[in-house]
Structure formats: C-alpha cells, structure tokens
Amino acid sequence: MSVFSYAKKYKKQLILGPAFKLMEAIFELTLPLFMAYLIDSGIREQNISVVYAATLYMLALSILGLLCVLVCQYYAAVASQGFGTELRLAIVKKITQFSHTEIDEFGPDTFLTRTINDVNQLQLALAMLIRLVIRAPFLSIGSIVMAFTINTSMGFIFLLTVPIFSFILYILMSKTVPKYQQVLSSIDELNTVTSEQLTGVKVIRAFANEKKMEDKSAKVSEKLANRYIDMTKLSALMSPLTLFMTNMIIALILWVGDINVSVGQLQTGDIVALINYMLQLLAALIVVANLVTIFVRAFSAKKRVEEILNTTPKVQTQPLDKVLPLESENTLSFQDVSFHYPSSSQDVLRKIQFDLKKGTQLGIVGPTGSGKTTLIELIQKFYLPTDGTILLDNMNLLDLTTGEVRESIGYVSQKSVIFSGTIESNLKMGFPNATEKDCWRALEWADCLEFVDDLSMPTAENGTNFSGGQRQRLAIARALISQPSIMILDDALSALDYKTDLAIRQTLARLDFIKNSIIVSQRISSVKEADHLLVLNQGEIVAQGTHQNLMKQSKFYQQIVTSQEKEDN
Ligand SMILES: Nc1ncnc2c1ncn2[C@@H]1O[C@H](COP(=O)(O)OP(=O)(O)OP(=O)(O)O)[C@@H](O)[C@H]1O
C-alpha cells in the first residue's frame, strides 16, 4: 500500500490549495508592472492621480494575494495534518498486527522513528506540495515571460540565469541528500540508546554505571551532531552563494539597463520592474531547490513507512472463529517440534515431543536460556515452528486462527506488564465486558485483595506504583478474568513468597473452568506437584515424568533439586 492512498481523502484541498496559491502568484507577477507605471507615468511625469491609482491597485492586489495565501495555508494545514494523523494510525495498527517475528526483525526503536520523524517529513512534503509546487515554477516561468515582454535582451539574461543557478543548487543538493540519510540512521541509533537507558535507569544506577552510560549517550549524540553539522555546512553555503549571484545579476541588469535607457529603449520604471522580476525568479528557484530536498527526504521516509505498511505478518492475527471445545484426550501435543528465531539459524528448541492430557497440570523446568519461554510462545502462535507439528485440541495449530488459540489461553508472562490507567482498565484488557463483580472475583483468585481496595486505583506506567510481586498478581488476575480453559504462567510466580505462590497454585487447581495449566518455573517447589514435568536443557527435553519419577530416574533433575535445596537452606 502506498502512503499516497492516505492523501486521497484530501482531494479538495489538494486541488483548491494550489489554485489559490496560483492566483496569488498572478497578483504578485502583475505588481512590478504597476510599480513601473507608478514610476514612469506617475512620479516622473508628476501625475498625482496616476500615483494614487497605481498605489490603490497595488494595495488591492496585495490584499487579494494575502487572502489567497490564507485560504491556501488553511487547506495545506487541514490536508497535511489529517494525512499525517491517518498515516500514523495506520502504522500503529499495522505494528499491533505484527507477530513477534516482524517485531524482532524491525526492532522497536525504528518503529518510533518511522511513526514520528518519517511521518512528519511526509506531512511537510504534502503541505509544501499544496503551497509551493505550482507557485514556484509558475513564478519562475512568469518572471522570464514578463522580462521578455519588457525587453528581449533582458529576457535572455533571465533565461541564462536559470541553468547557472540550477547547476549550483544541484551540486549543493546532491551532496546534502546522502548526508541526510546518515543523519536519519544516527537518529535511529540515538533513539535506541536513549530508550534503553531510560527503561533501564534503575539497573544502571544499581551497578553504578551512570558514567559509562553517559559516555555511550554522548558518543552517539556527538555522532549525530557531527553528521548534522556536516550536512548543514553545505546547506549554509547556499545563502552566501545565492546572495552573491543575486547581486551579480542585478549589477548586470543595471549595466545592460543603463545602456538601454540611454538609447531610449527602456525607462527607469522598467529597470525597477526587471529587478523585481529577477528577485522573484531567484526566490522561486531557491524554493524549487528546497522543494527538491524536502521531496527527496520525503521519498526516503515514504520507503521506510511503506516497508512497515506492506509487511505481511508471518502469523496473521485473525478474529475468533469458534471456541475450542477442548474435549480431546490430549489438550496439547508437540510432535517433533524444532524452532529457530528468524535472526539465527541455530535451533533453540530441538525435537520437542510431549502430550498434555486433558485436566492435568504441566510443569516446565530448566536452566536459563534452555528454551522454556520459546516453547510457551510457540503454543500461543507468536512464532511458527520451523519443523514438526503442534496440536491444540487435536487440531494443527497452523489451521487455527490466532483468535481461537489465544481465546482459550490465559497467559502471564515472565515480566508482568501493567499499563498506565487504573486497576479496572488493566483487568478489562483481558475481558472488555467484565463487570465489577468479575473484576473483584479475579482479584480474589490472584490474591490481590490485600493491596487493592478500589477498582479505580491508579496504575502508573509499567505499574511502578506496585511491587514486583503485586504486579505479578495483578497480571494473573488479568489473565483469570476471562476464565480461560488453559492457564499458562511463564515464571510468573518467581517474585512471590512461597506462601502466596502456593495459595495461587491451589486456587488454579480449584477453579473449574481451568482444564489445564502450564507452569514454567526455575523453582522446583512451584512445579513439583504438577501431573507431568518437562525438564529442558539447551533446547531439548532431557527428562519428563512426575517429580517422584524424575527424582529416581534423572540425574540432571536431581542436581537441580539438590542445588535449590542448598540455596534454600
Ligand atoms: N527474540 C529472540 N531472538 C533471538 N533469539 C532469542 C530470542 N528470544 C530468545 N532467544 C534465544 O533463545 C534461547 C532460549 O531462550 P528462552 O527465553 O526461551 O529461554 P528460557 O529457558 O525461557 O530462559 P529464562 O529462564 O532465562 O527465561 C536463548 O538462547 C535466547 O538467547
């Protein structure tokens, strides 16, 4: 999809805006003629009524011109702001449809630059298109035509000015545009470093790493500043160069004009009019050059924005088609499933094979980086397996919509994300139609009543006004509110004390609507009562069974248990 399709709605502004600007340009072109008339027939002939009439005409033309400009600016503002808003909404909508694969591929920081900077650039280009794209070339051509009507040799001076001036501008532009691309990539880099440092500010402080981070920030900012200065050094040349050219050409007009006046072919007023036309021509050429820069920048912004708009998510988010009955003997089956992330060809899960029987609880344990979260993400269709088959309720996950899969699952991630708003708005994310009663019931199940006494309690960005354990309990309540059939807790009990951890697991076992639960944990005590345990190491299942069986049969499992017992003692 092209970004232009978002401008289609503003056809009226795109046609009428330039039309009004064109009228203003016509008024502007006729002004020097009245000036010549005022000088030659009014001032020189000392005819006061001509002076009054010419002044009045000039005033009227200026007022009409001003009105036209105002209308055009209004249309340009309406169209460009409307276009920008819609484009930004479309980008955000598209990003929310992206699967984890595209989010990994693009990286969150480039989303920010593309949604803000690039859309601004496109907005500016549209506003300029309305305001200047017809006016500037019209004024350039008009000035040359008017010069020819006054005097042919002067017309040729005007004609010659265009290629010389354009050549100088072209050289400057061709050097600045690539430098602008470098500036853009530096902005991306600065965004990444800044957002990383802001979100990790507490960790940075805890490790007394402020100086190191300041240096990193300074280095990236300096790089951006240098690239920017490098670019502006060239554009700064534009002003003195054009001023020099303008004065040289005016000197030429005065010199040739003087000869023509002395032989009676031109009058003083004509010379004033010609100088005015030349100033208009040069100003219009500078505008054209600026327009070229703006459009070149907008072109690269267009490519970056369209890259997002035209990316088809590997996993399409589709609405709920049917609710899974979950009546098969096995709720979930992994059949020889392997997976590697798009950024690397190395498998992080290899030949995973297990069944989750209806009505049972599954525990997954394993050291960090063993692939536990990846396995959970595959169940929810955030990524697709690179090999093997996943069956949910005896149906291939590939044949189910994301709506069907995710509707059945209540998921609490390792990092409990709480959004700014209220307790109620956070809970309702999981179930928009929830009543107050539903909210309180979910809060009770997740053991939140001791710190929540009002649904309208505010939640700060990232839930920073709650402790880590409270955030995890709120996230569990949010997952439980829709009464899902399968509950997945990905290391979501780790920030809780043993007593609360146990209380929540007992509640999960007691709730009738939960047919199966999957608990991922590094803490054996959180999973040892599970009906079936998977022990993962380096992407492979190294043992599976009940806690008792594993204690007898798996050395690896025994080692984990022993090391944790030592830690606890
Ligand atoms: N988005 C990603 N892109 C590329 N590699 C990834 C990505 N996420 C995880 N990995 C890699 O996949 C492997 C398994 O990671 P995963 O998060 O599944 O492990 P885990 O067992 O859940 O670890 P932990 O207990 O520390 O959360 C790791 O080697 C990790 O580096």
UniProtKB/TrEMBL annotation:
Residues 15-297 form the ABC transmembrane type-1 domain. It comes from the Bacteria. Pfam families: ABC_membrane, ABC_tran. SMART domains: AAA. One of its GO terms (molecular function) is ABC-type oligopeptide transporter activity. InterPro entries: AAA+_ATPase, ABC1_TM_dom, ABC1_TM_sf, ABC_transporter-like_ATP-bd, ABC_transporter-like_CS, P-loop_NTPase, Type_1_exporter. It is found in: Cell membrane. Keywords: ATP-binding, Cell membrane, Membrane, Nucleotide-binding, Transmembrane, Transmembrane helix, Transport. Residues 332-563 form the ABC transporter domain. One of its GO terms (cellular component) is plasma membrane. The chain crosses the membrane at residues 20-39, 51-78, 124-148, 154-172, 236-257, 277-299. It is a multi-pass membrane protein. Gene3D superfamilies: ABC transporter type 1, transmembrane domain, P-loop containing nucleotide triphosphate hydrolases. This is ATP-binding protein. It comes from Vagococcus martis.
